[in-house]
Amino acid sequence: MNPSNHDFLVKPHLITRGLRPENQETPIHFLEANETPISLTYRRNHFPYPLLSIQSYFLTIKGSVKNRVTLHYNQITSMPSRTVTTLMECSGNKRAYFDPKVFGEQWTEGAISQGNWKGVSLSTLLSITGVNNGAREIVFQGEDSGVKNGQHVQYERGLPIEKALDPNVIVAWEHNQKPISPKHGFPFRLIVPGWYGMASVKWLKTIRVIDHPFSGPFQTDDYVYYPHKEQNKGSFPVTTNRINSVIQQPLDRQILKPGQHQITGLAWTGEGIITSVEISLDNGATWKTAILQDTPQKYRWVKWSYSHVFEKNQDYNIKVRAFDSIGQSQPDKAFWNRNGYGNNEVSQINIQIE
């Protein structure tokens, strides 16, 4: 019996980087739409998934506030909402490309996704409780927990109050027009546009306002840039997404026929917007301007393309670099740090024309 044509259709799957806990990235060449399907949204976890239900779920806001409140799921989802479209990128994206190598999940380019998140602005929730004078940071605690350095801890992250009060920072309950999936933070997830994904705390349970810097293990140990291999001198925190880009097509080491082909990919940045993307076909000797397929918008990636006629029996090194509205561009060499965060060096692939 001959297999049907349907059997030969390519069905994309996440690429496993870890199972306990689950960490999976997206094959970058499948990110075609501005809204990444939930099934292809990358998964980043420190601990096992918590098991939660709406019926018994409450969100507590406490600390340096005028009125401590505990809100049920239905109370929060009935509040005035807004939808934020933003990319989400793991700070360890492209860790596999550091030289010398660093420890950690060996993400290539696919620890990134983009989606629509519906929720209530954090500033709206804090207007209910009131914030005391002198408040400096907001701490967000998730329901995920486990053992770290021999101690049982819960995942917690802090935000400076100035960033936390940005109206685009929301407590979300919907992802791509559906309730957030259990693997992406159900029932509530903090969404912090412009910052790496570690700030967007999943399974959000408690919000705590404090009048001093937060120093939890995922704030001052993990998610810190350590420029030196064996000392902490010169360290500083991981915050906003660094300007970056990636080539989606062709694939690295692909063999193509002579003739015209399109080079396509994505570019993004944390603050500002992408203003231009440049392509080199000769290992950086010369650069050409790519076409931006979309109108660049803050917190979103932009698609780009460049068409070229490739000659027979030639090898090509293709590089891409992006520029943004606040003067940032990608470096030729990544800023090495021992935890492997923020790799945004110029992306490159090699192809062969037969």
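(ticket continues) Second input and output from the same batch:
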Amino acid sequence: MSLKILGLKQFIKQVEKATDGGLKREFGLWLEGLGMDFLGLIQDEIIRTETVDTRRLLNSFNRGDSEGIWSISEGGLTLEIGTRLAYASYANDGHFQQKRFVPGYWRGDRFVYEPGASTGMMLREKWVEGSHYWDNALAIFERIFQRSLERRMQQWLDTEF
């Protein structure tokens, strides 16, 4: 008993030709574009959830920022995005605020932090709820990634075969 699949050898040759470096390069560029999209989603969620007003956290999710993490490897199709800011996870997950004095002054209803100021405010110990900006952005990205991968694979198949 035998089974013959017509066109299988031709198909295998086309796959080998297509994957001879070109496909990895194409998918590396596609992955890089998705990484940029994810950075945008994180920034949008930081703004939407009003996580910070100093812009330090927001700016750390930029490609090329010294406090951001951005790495991509074409061959293994790996993309790593993050931030080196220690308080980023506290802002996302929540944390206990310790009782402490914060130097600065009030300008209307807004507190302005000023190191070394003789005035300021006393923070009390309490739980500060996280904004879940990262979790929200990741949930959105997962949906986008799935659709984008399906479209990209279909485009590749349509082009190559």
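Agent notes: The chain has a mean pLDDT of 82. The chain has five helices and seven strands. Closing as not reproducible unless the customer responds.
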